[in-house]
Amino acid sequence: MDKEKAKALSKTLACYKELQENNSVNLIEFHTADGQKHGIGNPEAIKLLLSVAVIELERQLRTAQFGDIPESLENSREYKAAKQLEYAMNDLGFKSERFAQALPYFHKTLEQTFFRTVKASITAMAGRDSRCIDDRNRASYEMCQMLASMLEDTRLPFI
Questions:
Q1: What whole-number distance in Å separates Cα of residue 10 and Cα of residue 54?
Q2: Given pLDDT bands bounded at 50, 70 and 90, which one contains residue 1?
């Protein structure tokens, strides 16, 4: 863990989150290498840029706190699939209920694999260090802890 970097990133992240929550930014200015200045004053564009900045700062903070993603994981097809799901879910139009409605249309073997993946995700989250859980995920973490013991004792056969 890079404590100094994590501390600086935490401070910057808190500042950006405050700007985001207070909706207090009315101009973002870019300075080019040739000395030109370009500004964005559109409130929706500013909101989007601050959102992206917060997401990136959170990623950098996680890396400073816990290290980089192991190369063997980052190069796996499971990680790549999870990243594709992340992109889909990061859209405000993503509806979890509609996603769940789509599951019966999967090939039945893939539906089994999906539920094995859900089970593994729940038990993995339940096993995380509680210090790594932020307020956005506290309720999910607590729910996973309640479900984990039941799931660990339940076998999902591969048929």
A1: 11
A2: low
